[in-house]
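Practice problem: predict the structure.
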Amino acid sequence: MATDIELSPYRITANEYAAFNLHFLVRHYRSWKSWLVFVPAPLFLAVMIFLTSDNLAVEVRLGVTLAAFFIAFILSAILMQGCALARCLLRFGKQPIGQAEIRVSLTDGLFISALPQQEGRYKWAGLHDVVRSGKLSLVYVHPHMAVIIPDRIFADEEAAHTFFDEAHDRWTRAKATAGS
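Answer:
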């Protein structure tokens, strides 16, 4: 039987929130399906270029159309995600995560995360993932939502890694037990 662990209350900084958002973007865009949101505008542009450049040779027309599509695709991905990240950071101070102290506890059966006005109790097997990213431990309670636990709240780096290892071990054991 593992011991319960309760972390000291802490607040997330804007830099930690930004680091989490960048980690999430990389994680989210591992799937090709996630990239489909960027296709409509570049596709429209490519079709318009193809239809209006009928005075060019077919090979040149196709080359220009494909180049325009890929350039527009990359630019739309950068612009859309840049705007989304900027929006998150601008709203950070107004969101509960930017204002309140967070409390985290680990018990044998539950991962508990609490803000002053709300508390989440999650069975270990029900968690989506437990990962490290830079100086953060991230406990994904949902595929698109994680509890951010920064290393700075621990006495030293070793304590932060020990906490992560314990949380990850509890999650892994619960997943294995639930799967058998």
